[in-house]
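Action item from last meeting closed. Structure (188 res):
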């Protein structure tokens, strides 16, 4: 790949952000929803080069690697579990899982305990080897991202993010009560 392909491929330093396009400045610093945009922006800057590297080096598309990474954290999870925690649709993950099985990176599916159609997925030895080769790069990139924070700030950020994640059960999946789709946002 020659030169930056998208804004997220660029190496933004402090000066770059200050001189960045008006839209990026507006989204980062003048946004009425700054928390969610900044989280998404950081995730984009983190994920784009890593998943490009995985595809270029190992020939795996993002959904395929997401399945492997998810199973490395919770071996025996199902496609439904991966879908709920990654946002990828089930049909995309079904194709990814089939390819991973053909490549020998996950072992044949077995019925999950107590679970009707739910099938447990497991990494093969070859799948674990790939995770052990790739995860250090993901970890190193996160350390680079957080390098601007002191140890205490990293701890505080982790605690605050945990609090927001745990509080998500109160709002996730629904719009605010006074913003029902049937009454708000429609032209009169």
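Sequence:
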């Amino acid at each position: 790949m020659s030169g930056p392909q998208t804004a997220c491929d660029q190496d933004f330093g402090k000066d770059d952000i200050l001189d960045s396009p008006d839209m990026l400045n507006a989204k980062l610093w003048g946004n009425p929803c700054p928390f969610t945009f900044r989280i998404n922006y950081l995730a984009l800057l983190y994920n784009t080069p890593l998943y490009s590297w995985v595809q270029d080096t190992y020939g795996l598309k993002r959904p395929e690697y997401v399945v492997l990474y998810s199973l490395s954290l919770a071996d025996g999870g199902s496609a439904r579990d991966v879908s709920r925690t990654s946002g990828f649709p089930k049909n995309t993950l079904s194709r990814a899982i089939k390819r991973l099985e053909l490549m020998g990176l996950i072992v044949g599916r077995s019925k999950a305990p107590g679970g009707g159609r739910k099938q447990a997925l497991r990494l093969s030895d070859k799948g674990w080897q790939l995770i052990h080769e790739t995860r250090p790069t993901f970890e190193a990139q996160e350390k680079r991202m957080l390098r601007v924070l002191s140890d205490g700030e990293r701890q505080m950020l982790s605690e605050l993010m945990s609090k927001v994640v745990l509080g998500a059960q109160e709002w996730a999946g629904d719009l605010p009560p006074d913003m029902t789709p049937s009454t708000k946002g429609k032209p009169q």
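Note appended to the action item: The CA atoms of residues 66 and 86 lie 8 Å apart.
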